[in-house]
Amino acid sequence: MSWPINLEGTAALVAGGLLGVAFGFLLERGGLGDPRKLTGLFYLTDFTMLQVMFTAIAVTAAGLGVLTAVGVVDLASLAIQPTYLWPQLVGGAILGAGFALGGY
Fold first, then answer.
1. Residue 71 to residue 10: CA distance in whole angstroms
2. Is the dihedral of CA 32, 25, 21, 19 positive or negative?
3. What is the total count of domains within the chain?
4. 33 located within any domain
């Protein structure tokens, strides 16, 4: 089971889709869809995107901790995918090059 809250099938897909749309909307409203922000990160002049993503990771970790302590989420049921280093490095490089070209 990869979804930690007790939702199955269509309900899990709908909840994930709504959360994804909300997250994308908030990122866009925050100005993080601006190509200048993305290229600024690559040129090491604007770290807004990095700060937002690290904040999102920290909030998610804290939220999972609280939801686990309350008993809403069972961490043992989270599916952690194995890491395939080389394919991820190549994919990240291609994605990064695409972002840089798109921002340029």
1. 23
2. positive
3. 1
4. yes
pTM for the model: 0.58
**Length of the chain, in residues:** 104
Residue 2 in domain? no
Percent of the chain that is helix, strand, coil (3-state, to 5)? 70, 0, 30
pLDDT, tens digit only, all 104 positions of the chain: 455 566 667 877 888 889 889 988 988 888 887 878 877 887 899 898 889 889 989 999 999 899 889 888 888 877 788 889 999 999 999 988 887 787 66
Q: Which distant-in-sequence residues (6+ apart) come within 8 Å of 51 by Cβ?
A: none
